[in-house]
Write a structure and sequence with these properties.
The complex is a heterodimer of chains A (169) and B (226). Chain A contains eight helices and no strands. Helix content of chain A is 71%, strand content 0%. The radius of gyration of chain A is 17 Å and the shape is globular. With 169 residues, chain A is mainly α. Chain B has a five-stranded antiparallel beta sheet with strand order 1-2-3-5-4, sandwiched between helices. The longest helix of chain B has 18 residues, at 32-49. The relative contact order of chain B is 0.09. The chains are: A mainly alpha (169), B alpha+beta (226).
């Protein structure tokens, strides 16, 4: 297995979660992932540490996302309502609803905060890795993460989640 | 609350130094409202961590990767190809360069704009240099600085064993020993004035105390000529 394929195999799931957080649409997220994977396979394999390789991988997906935004393929909206149908993932309605509520709160964050929260919480990056991936100072990463989590806490605490069941009724 | 929120998030993410963590824990013991805030942020963090957990990655695209060697048609062809490749390795290919050197080369070649100053990295603003890149490489941190006329300086702070050895040849560089067997490797853009580089290197060697005066001296030198 090539180094690139090995990287994709090890970090592909986290990369997919990051794509979904960026794109807020499952189909576009898959497209982004495939585009990023194709670029990874076509690129020179990264040298250096595992951390550097992971940063390289996520940067490629982010660049694919920015390209898609530039070409207006990505609308910056909320998660599609159909994802909120509780029976869809065969779990209890309450738990599914709560999960979608959190995902919606994340999707409603400004992009700058959302991608930092996604990299830390969904991909498990350290602050320094986020700083390297996004080309930001660590202090900016900390403040964006702080604002993003505070906003999500306020939203979830106030139960301001979009009433999806009512919308679908 | 935002400064304290950053501290609380740092605690949750394991990003605080032992001293900071201890101070924060003490503050939490004395302040129930702060403890409640930490609990709320911890819930958000746990909930966000669970988003799409267990979701499989899409299938990796099939098809050739970047590097593919062509199979020679004959044994003789194969031998000739192998000999040519071996010769090329010895004659043409340079040795693998240290990551810090590669990072500096990449920084010099790419577009760069100043970003906000980062805590913990040398502040070279007295010399008109603003931080433009922060990148973890080679077990250390590479920091790229850019001047008002595009002049660039790179610093790499990391373990001695991973530092580039000797002079680069393409640009001025210097390695400054730090505590705990760590070093700061300083490298300039090729066009940087020698006096300015020497003044900047002196400021880095002197550390934060002497920085302001020495960096102010560096400003008096002409910057990059390109």
């Amino acid at each position: 297995m090539s180094k690139q394929r090995d990287l994709l195999a090890r970090h592909g799931a986290a990369l997919h979660r990051y794509a979904r957080a960026l794109a807020s649409d499952p189909d576009l997220a898959r497209d982004l992932w495939q585009e990023a994977a194709a670029r990874v396979l076509a690129a020179r394999p990264p040298r250096g540490t595992e951390t550097e390789a992971r940063v390289w991988l996520f940067r490629i997906l982010r660049n694919a996302f920015l390209d898609a935004v530039r070409h207006a393929r990505v609308a910056r909206g909320h998660r599609s309502a159909e994802e909120a149908v509780p029976g869809r993932d065969r779990s209890t309605g309450e738990a599914a609803f709560a999960r979608v509520a959190v995902a919606q709160a994340l999707a409603r964050l400004p992009e700058a905060q959302r991608e930092v929260v996604a990299l830390v919480d969904l991909a498990g990056f350290s602050y320094l890795e986020v700083a390297a991936t996004l080309g930001l100072p660590k202090g900016t990463v900390m403040s964006r993460l702080s604002r993003g989590r505070a906003t999500m806490l306020a939203e979830l605490g106030e139960s301001s989640v979009v009433p999806l069941r009512r919308k679908l009724a | 609350m935002s400064g304290m929120d950053e501290r609380l998030n740092g605690l949750l993410d394991g990003e605080l130094s032992p001293t900071e963590a201890s101070d924060t824990a003490r503050a939490l013991r004395d302040d129930p409202a702060l403890a409640a805030r930490l609990a709320g942020l911890a819930e958000v963090r746990a909930a966000a961590t669970a988003i799409d957990a267990g979701l499989p990655a899409p299938a990796i695209p099939q098809g050739p990767d970047r590097r593919r060697w062509r199979r020679p048609g004959t044994l003789a062809g194969g031998v000739a190809l192998a000999l040519s490749a071996a010769a090329a390795v010895f004659v043409l290919l340079p040795a693998r360069e240290p990551p810090a050197l590669a990072a500096h080369r990449s920084f010099l070649a790419a577009a760069a704009e100043a970003i906000e100053s980062d805590v913990g990295l040398p502040d070279l603003s007295y010399a008109g240099l603003r931080l433009a890149r922060v990148e973890p490489v080679g077990g250390g941190i590479y920091a790229g600085y850019v001047g008002p006329r595009g002049c660039r300086l790179g610093l790499w702070l990391g373990p001695r064993g991973n530092a580039p050895a000797g002079e680069g040849g393409e640009w001025r560089s210097e390695t400054v020993a730090q505590a705990n067997d760590r070093v700061t490797w300083i490298a300039a853009a090729p066009a940087m004035d020698a006096g300015r580089f020497a003044a900047l290197a002196e400021a880095v060697r002197a550390g934060p105390v002497a920085n302001a005066a020495l960096l102010a001296g560096a400003v008096a030198r002409s910057a990059c000529l390109s």
